[in-house]
Write a structure and sequence with these properties.
This protein has about 260 residues and is of the alpha/beta class. The protein has a single domain, classed as P-loop containing nucleotide triphosphate hydrolases (Rossmann fold), CATH 3.40.50. The chain has ten helices and ten strands. The strands form two sheets. It has a six-stranded mixed sheet, with helices on both faces. It has a four-stranded antiparallel sheet with strand order 2-1-4-5, with helices on one face. It is globular and about 50 Å long. The chain starts with a strand and ends in a 9-residue tail after the last helix. The mean pLDDT is about 85.
Length: about 260
């Protein structure tokens, strides 16, 4: 399979201080890839650089960022954002931030489709309801008529996943998509992301500090520490036979149930 998204030797700095040091990551069409590491390792910066969302303090200092072979690293920020919005979307850590609290979810789904997909208001509403239903929400119309603060965390995250899929992106980036959720809801959202990959054929790049979550979801893992990739490989291989001491630390940090006393 060919890569739908890849970064090569990417270097990024904030206010002149280097935070990514020659990172290379590849995502094949239709696959799920995970990037794992503790807070501050650079994984969210990688996503922001890829999406053109570094802000004024951030700068890509070297390397390339390609979507389906097209290099966006030399574009202006406006050009980068404009192009990426046609091929990629983001599911953030906090689903509340994906939606305005003063407008119904339905109006925001419709606006997204009108601005980027060219659908009519009625067709956008129908697509949004269909997506939410396929993502396990039993009453999509009620969800679309709701405000985000009226939904549980799990429902809001599923709605955010639906919004990310609204215009049929080739790539979805998920930034700590389960970290703000209860454990039981985490499992549901993980399954919805995996289902979205299978059902819609979208490629997923998921970043998390939880190696257990990513090992369950992703076919391939990159382990990041201090702005560098220190280990990579098929998920089962990385978890079963870790080569780097930091990977071993991440695996050892996964909570384990104790036997009955």
């Amino acid at each position: 399979m060919s890569a739908i998204f890849e970064i090569e030797n990417l270097r990024v700095a904030y206010n002149g201080d280097a935070v990514l040091h020659g990172v290379t990551v590849s995502l094949e069409q239709g696959s799920i890839v995970g990037i794992v590491g503790e807070s501050g390792c650079g994984k969210t910066t990688l996503l922001r650089a890829s999406l053109g969302m570094l802000g004024q303090a951030g700068q890509v200092c070297g390397g390339s960022i390609r979507f389906a072979g097209k290099d966006v690293s030399g574009m202006t920020q406006a050009e980068h954002l404009s192009y990426v919005s046609t091929v990629a979307s983001l599911v953030s850590q906090n689903p509340q931030r994906a939606f305005s609290p003063v407008r119904t979810l339905g109006s925001q789904f419709e606006e997204t489709a009108l601005l980027r997909g060219g659908l009519s208001k009625g067709a956008a509403r129908a697509r949004a309801a269909s997506l939410l239903g396929r993502l396990g929400l039993s009453d999509p119309e009620r969800v679309l008529d709701s405000y985000v603060f009226e939904l549980s965390g799990g429902m809001a995250q599923r709605a955010a996943i639906g919004l990310a899929l609204m215009n049929s992106p080739k790539v979805v980036f998920a930034d700590e998509p389960t970290s703000a959720l209860d454990v039981a809801v985490q499992a549901q959202v993980v399954e919805e992301l995996v289902s979205a990959n299978r059902e819609f054929g979208v490629s997923l790049l998921v970043v998390s500090h939880n190696i257990a979550v990513l090992a369950h979801m992703a076919q391939y893992l990159y382990v990041m520490k201090d702005g560098e990739v220190v280990e990579q490989g098929p998920s089962e291989q990385v978890v079963a036979r870790p080569q780097h001491p930091y990977t071993c630390q991440l695996i050892a940090a996964v909570p384990k149930l104790r036997g009955a006393r």
